[in-house]
Every structure is written in C-alpha cells, then in structure tokens.
Design a protein that fits this description.
The structure is a single chain. The protein has 406 residues and is of the alpha/beta class. Helices cover 26% and strands 27% of the residues. It has eleven helices and 20 strands. Strands 3-2-4-5-9-8 form a six-stranded mixed sheet, covered by helices on one side. A six-stranded mixed sheet has the order 12-11-13-14-20-19. Strand 2, helix 2 and strand 3 form a beta-alpha-beta unit. It is elongated and about 80 Å long.
C-alpha cells in the first residue's frame, strides 16, 4: 500500500527553512531525512520503534523511555518533530511522559507532525515507511517491527495528554492519501502570526505534485526586475507574497529572498466579505506578522484587478506603511474589458519563467479604465518598470513594477 504525504510535502515546501532543527522520532530508513538535509536542516534521530521493540514488557515503560532518549544540549530547541504513525502505538501515559521529556527542547511555534489511523481496521504494528518519490511512501511490513496493536487514540484524546500542543491543521482524503490516515500538525504554545513561511501551515500543496505544461509557462520580465530590486535593497531582503497559495512558488521564492511572508489576500478579503458584506475594505488586521517588520518587496500578481478603487488605494497605503523607502511593488493588470472571473495562480519556475494556472474561463467586467486611474490611486509609488504580455489563456496584461517613494 502507498500513501502520499501532503503534510511532509508542506513541511519541506512551505514551513521549514535552512538551519531549522528537526527531531525525527522514527527510524532513519524512511528516506525523509535526506530531504531536510538538502535544506541544510539539523536532523536528530530518536527511533521510538526501537524503544517499542526493546521495551514491550518493561516493568516501568516511563523509565525505559527516559533511558532510551539521547541526552541533548540544554540550548537545543526543535522547530519540527516528526512522529510518523508512532503515537498510534504508545499508551497515553507514555505519550504524556514523552512530551514532558522533550519540553525543555520545545519553543513557541514548534510544529509536530503525526499520522493518525482511522477506521475499523487498525494496524497491528507500526508501519515502515519507504520514500519513493514526491513524498509518496510505500508501507512495508517489517518482520522485525514489534507487534503492538494500534490504540485507536482520537484527536481529542491525544491533545488532552500533549500539554501545550494545539491542533494547527489536518489533512485527509486527498488524492493519493491512504483514506484511513489523517495527518495532523500540532503547534506548541500556539503563536498568533502564521503567515511567515516557516510557520505558514499546510496550505494546498497539491500544486507541488502537479507537472507544469509548456503551454502554461510565460515570460514576465517584471518579476526578475522586481526580485533584483528587492535583493539590491538589503543584504537579507524581506518580501510579502500575496497571491493564491502555491507550495512550489513559495519554495522558489524562499531561495531568492532572505525572509518570505505569505498572505493570501484573495482568501482573506473573501472571508471579510462573507462576514461584513459586499464593499469590505482592507485594515491592518490582514497583516498578522510583527508590525515592526519592514518589507523590501510585495508581489500582488493579478489581485488588483478584483478590487475597487477605494480598496486599491487603501491597500497601497497599508503596504506603504510597512515597506522600506525604495521597496518594490509588483502586480499585473488585464488590458481587455472582460477579465477572468477570479484570480489565477502564479508560480516562479526554475528557469525564471512563470507558470500561470487556474485561469477562469468565465469572465467579469474590468473595474479600472486606465493606467492613469491606477497611478492616481497609488500616489506614494513611482513607476519603475512596465511590460506587456499574454497569459496562456490569451488574455493580454500589463506588468507593473513600482517603487515606494522616499
């Protein structure tokens, strides 16, 4: 049997950054450690399968756990903990004690990833996971693994015994996933801001597994011009990506920028509209990262096409308050009177071209009439670059690169 782990894909493409410390509670044989090592992460292996094998009949399993865990430097704090399916096979008091033993090495925002078995046919022993490709794993029945039936812990029961961990996100029943497995992300001392990439959560990473067709790739010179300008502004540039979530695009931008923040503005505004009505505006609440953070660049992609003049003016002012002088604002505007019904998904590719996918076939009326109207709504910015192009759908667009005036 095979299982495609959208959770582990999300970790490597959206959440983990270079230098993060990973604690893997499973055996080294899964192959995932290599993916984190390629990201220059520090990986520590504990192998609780070995603990189960050697201590099934231990007189005191809690003391046995203490003796099994390796001593760690006092200042070592983990960013991510991988549990695989192991929590399914531990008694609740052992799980509780494990969290206590690890507590000195946890910090606010530590993410724990685990797989919970659901359904009637619970495994009678832990599974050995072998990485095939694209975070698709093969289950192997290892005869050396201990015969310890799954305890059938519910999510609520697990959370009750895992002090200070809260449910961050869950993934289930996606294409390629074992339908009897739910992947959970738990967060230690839950933090308010989650839109910085390293703690951004498991967004829709299905794009990570999707092949980009040649006819979906286009040249967008303004993207490279904007990125070059952002990098020139600071030795460790900070950027805000506002487009629709795409794991591979986030991964590509992380390699080009010092610190990347993500805020799906389309989803945020849609939620505000649902709560408050048609003409909802932007407010400072859309940005949940530290107010002291200064941005060297912002990518809006095609989002401004879907906002009213008042919303564009409002957004420009809010962004300007958080950008450094000379910071770059990139976006595209459609040229025809009829535009796609909803925003598209943009992805920076390895060859510096841009993949544009999810372009709606249905159309709506364009709200802005001219470039002059647009620039009047953004008086705090000057034009730095302008290009014309066509989407794979045939829709003509203008690509703008603006800079914040000193």
């Amino acid at each position: 049997m095979q299982h495609r782990s959208f959770g582990l894909a999300a970790l490597t493409t959206e959440m983990v950054k270079s230098g993060d410390r990973i604690l893997d509670l499973g055996p080294l044989s899964s192959g995932t450690t290599q993916a984190f090592l390629r990201l220059n992460c520090q990986c520590h292996i504990e192998d609780l399968i070995e603990y189960l094998l050697e201590n099934q009949n231990a007189e005191d399993p809690l003391i046995a756990l203490e003796e099994h865990l390796l001593p760690k430097p006092a200042n070592l704090k983990f960013d991510v903990i991988l549990c695989w399916d192991i929590l399914n096979f531990l008694e609740l008091d052992v799980i509780r004690h494990l969290v206590r033993l690890l507590q000195p090495h946890l910090k606010q925002g530590t993410i724990l990833h685990t797989m919970r078995y659901t359904g009637r046919n619970q495994p009678q022993k832990p599974r050995r996971f072998r990485l095939l490709e694209n975070f698709c794993y093969e289950y192997i029945d290892d005869p050396e693994y201990p015969a310890v039936p799954s305890k059938g812990h519910s999510t609520v029961t697990l959370l009750k015994c895992m002090d200070r961990f809260s449910l961050f996100n869950s993934l289930m029943k996606r294409e390629g996933m074992d339908q009897n497995v739910t992947e959970h992300f738990l967060e230690y001392d839950s933090v308010t801001s989650r839109n910085q990439v390293r703690s951004g959560g498991a967004s829709d990473v299905s794009a990570y597994f999707r092949n980009v067709r040649d006819d979906e790739r286009i040249e967008m010179p303004g993207v490279e011009k904007a990125l070059a300008s952002i990098r020139a502004l600071s030795a460790a540039p900070t950027m805000l990506e506002c487009g629709r979530k795409n794991g591979r695009n986030i991964d590509a931008l992380k390699k080009k920028i010092g610190a990347l923040y993500v805020e799906d503005l389309h989803a945020s505004l849609a939620w505000q509209k649902k709560l408050h009505g048609e003409e909802t505006g932007f407010s400072t609440s859309i940005f949940t990262f530290d107010p002291g953070t200064r941005l060297d660049g912002v990518f809006l992609w095609d989002l401004l096409n879907y906002y009213s003049g008042a919303q564009i003016q409002q957004l420009g002012e809010l962004l300007g308050e958080r950008m450094t002088p000379g910071a770059t604002l990139h976006f595209v505007m459609y040229k025809s009177a009829q535009i796609p019904e909803r925003p598209s998904t943009f992805e920076v590719l390895d060859d510096n071209r841009i993949a544009v996918t999810g372009v709606a076939t249905s159309k709506r009326q364009r709200t802005l009439n001219s470039t002059a109207d647009l620039m009047r709504l953004l008086p705090g910015y000057r034009l730095f670059g302008h290009h014309i192009g066509k989407l794979p759908s045939g829709d003509a667009f203008q690509e703008f690169v603006l800079q914040l005036k000193p």
